[in-house]
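This section describes the prediction task in plain terms. A model, or a person checking by hand, is given the sequence of a single protein chain and must write out its three-dimensional structure as a string of tokens. No templates, partner chains or ligands are provided. The sample shown here is typical of the held-out split.
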Amino acid sequence: MTAFDLTGRTALVTGAARGLGAAFAAGLAGAGADVIVVDRPGVDLGPTVAAVTGAGRACHPHAFDLADTEAIAPWADELRRAHGPLHILVNNAGVAALEHFNEITVAGWRALMRVNVEAVFFLAQRVAEHMIADGVSGRIVNISSKNGLVAEAGLAHYNASKGAVELLTRSLAAELGPHGITVNTIAPGMIATPIDGEFPFDRAAFEAAWAERIPLRGGYGRPDDCVGALLLLASDAGRYITGTHLVVDGGVLADQMPRLRFMPPYRNTL
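The expected answer:
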């Protein structure tokens, strides 16, 4: 057994049907965890279930709309009764919309905040209560974004929601530390996921511009590029890490301006 081994533990992953959520579920199963996977009613969880069971672990699919924040606590109670103590919570579900600041409506703002902030907090709140009652030194990992650390035009509400997740995470880490529960975020950068691909713009031009902006060669990251960060934070290897974030962005936030393209080519001086 290694410090990253999750055998005997049960994880809950929200927004698990595709993208990061599907990769997280498969990665946790590969490390030995049984996985509860959740997405909205009508969304196909079949491929994620197949990936988890293919790794030899139990998978429990559930349909639930996290926008129904009033129902989160009783739903979490039902999961506990059905599947026993939860050791790992991955708050991955999220929504986004590309809009100028003056196009954002009150209804649109509130709908985004319900999923990206309220659901994250209230699910973590209830699951943390379960962990304390069950004597579990649990792991809560909230999926934030580089947009929780720096702003991006056209995403004022999304930026605000991810910034809120970052500070909520630190607040929970401070309160849950005495119970042995760690709370952290993973802040992905430009990862090839459906949430970004649904924006209404010239996709090819956008990706070409970002390819020049990402220092690490290869351009956009893949969902499985974030799995290692999750396994660190979810396992005993990360038992003394709490109240912080792991940025997985290929170096975007390390480089304030893509100056290299204006410099002479790399010259080997050996």
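For orientation: The beta strands are 10-14, 34-39, 59-63, 88-91, 139-143, 182-188, 245-248.
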